[in-house]
């Protein structure tokens, strides 16, 4: 038994309370690892969240980094989008890093951890390494990059910081092979980096239902930020409506571009076709997928270089046997094969997007076959049980860790 072994997970994305709408992937992985290890979470505090609590099987400590009402750097879309939305938030960054460092050092002094698992190279991976340097003997550090930290932080300083973390972490995981190539180009050692994506509950949660009517229902799920490419989907919608006048588009998500996107809908006179739901609780997502015929994933490489590291929305949608149309972003190649489990269109190309969606809307049998093949593909590769076991195997490699 390894239950007495302790993992300290450091993250900037974690549910602030039960039923929170924040992305749950760090929680889901940690909760499953807690069946085998004692897992302690260190995350930033936010207004309305407890400073310490038992969150199901996880012990959670949240660190304050400024006056409570002004702690707006994390959550609500993530650190990078929040910085883009309000440049004044850059003033919070040093307070965040210092507070996280002090909180981590305090925990390392209080308890003996066998492993630190830092999610994101910067700031968590950087903070973990700086805290470890404070001790003669510190736990090994596993750092996981999810995409935005690797692709979105540009400039010489950020490049140096990323290289510092990549070269000095005990081991690394990234969520796609495209990210692995980027990490290797920055100097990461091939021997200590593995591709392990986040997972999806494809057995109990994201499952198909044969009784729901889906016809002509389009769905977008994701944060309303530039790299998600939603404005290209909205630009394509008039071309789709020309062939399928009874189509509807549901948009689930919130983010810094929300007002801009709503204005685009008004300008294109699409109000009767488009519905913005805002952020949706994670427990409600399967119902959305199950009541939709086609899920569209128009992600792009943003102007600052930020892009998807992996598309969990794709896995969720295919798990529910939805037909999927997605952009040709490199990271998507791990998940999708054109005409096998999805139709692929050129990123930033609304014409191509519309053609692929119209092809699906005109061919119900194609939608069904893509969805069924897609679910089988996802079950074989991305269910949480498979992903958790990969992390357990990594964590028991004696070369790296003491677990």
Task: Note down, in words, how this protein is organized.
The chain has 14 helices and 14 strands. By secondary structure, the protein is an alpha/beta fold. The chain starts with 5 loop residues before the first strand and ends in an 8-residue tail after the last helix.
What class, by secondary structure content? alpha/beta
CATH class assignment of the largest domain: Alpha Beta
Question: What is the overall pLDDT average?
Answer: 94
Strand content: 15-25%
Spatial order of the strands forming the largest sheet: 3-4-2-1-5-6-7-8
Radius of gyration: 21 Å
Q: What's the architecture of the largest domain in CATH terms? A: 3-Layer(aba) Sandwich
* The CATH superfamily title of the largest domain: Glycogen Phosphorylase B
Distance between the first and last residues' Cα: 10 Å
Give the count of structural domains.
2
> What is the number of beta strands?
14
- Gross morphology is globular
Summarize the structure.
The chain is an alpha/beta fold and 403 residues long. The protein has helices at residues 25-33, 79-85, 93-110, 121-132, 148-151, 156-168, 177-185, 230-243, 258-267, 285-290, 312-319, 350-361, 364-381, 384-395, and strands at 6-10, 38-44, 52-55, 58-63, 115-119, 141-145, 171-174, 193-195, 217-221, 248-252, 274-278, 294-297, 323-327, 343-345. The strands form two sheets. It has an eight-stranded mixed beta sheet with strand order 3-4-2-1-5-6-7-8, with helices on both faces.
């Amino acid at each position: 038994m390894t239950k007495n072994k302790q993992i300290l997970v450091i993250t900037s994305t974690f549910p602030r309370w039960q039923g929170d709408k924040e992305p749950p992937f760090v929680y889901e992985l940690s909760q499953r690892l807690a069946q085998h290890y004692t897992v302690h979470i260190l995350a930033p505090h936010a207004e309305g969240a407890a400073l310490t609590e038992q969150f199901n099987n996880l012990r959670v400590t949240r660190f304050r980094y400024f006056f409570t009402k002004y702690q707006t750097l994390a959550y609500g879309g993530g650190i990078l989008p929040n910085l883009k939305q309000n440049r004044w938030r850059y003033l919070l960054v040093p307070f965040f890093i210092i507070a996280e460092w002090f909180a981590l050092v305090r925990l390392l002094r209080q308890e003996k951890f066998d492993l630190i698992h830092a999610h994101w190279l910067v700031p968590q991976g950087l903070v973990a390494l700086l805290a470890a340097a404070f001790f003669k003997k510190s736990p090994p550090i596993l750092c996981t990059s999810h995409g935005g930290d690797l692709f979105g932080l540009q400039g010489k300083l950020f490049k140096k910081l990323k290289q510092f973390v990549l070269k000095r972490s005990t081991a690394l995981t990234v969520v796609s092979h495209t990210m692995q190539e980027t990490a290797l180009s920055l100097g990461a050692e091939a021997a200590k980096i593995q591709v392990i994506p986040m997972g999806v509950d494809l057995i109990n949660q994201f499952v198909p239902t044969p009784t729901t009517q889906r016809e002509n229902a389009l769905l977008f799920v994701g944060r309303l930020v530039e790299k998600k490419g939603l404005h290209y989907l909205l630009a394509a919608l008039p071309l789709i409506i020309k062939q399928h006048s009874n189509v509807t588009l549901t948009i689930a998500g919130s983010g810094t571009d929300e007002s801009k996107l709503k204005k685009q809908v008004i300008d294109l006179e699409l109000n009767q076709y488009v519905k913005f739901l805002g952020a949706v609780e994670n427990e409600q997502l399967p119902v959305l997928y199950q009541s939709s015929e086609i899920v569209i994933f128009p992600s792009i490489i943003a102007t600052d270089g930020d892009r998807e590291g992996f598309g969990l929305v794709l896995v969720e949608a295919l798990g529910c046997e939805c037909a999927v149309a997605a952009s040709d972003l490199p990271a998507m190649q791990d998940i999708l094969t054109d005409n096998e489990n999805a139709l692929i269109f050129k990123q930033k190309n609304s014409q191509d997007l519309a053609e692929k969606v119209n092809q699906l809307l005109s061919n119900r049998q194609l939608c069904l076959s893509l969805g069924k093949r897609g679910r089988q593909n996802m079950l074989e590769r991305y269910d949480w049980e498979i992903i958790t076991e990969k992390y357990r195997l990594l964590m028991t490699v004696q070369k790296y860790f003491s677990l």
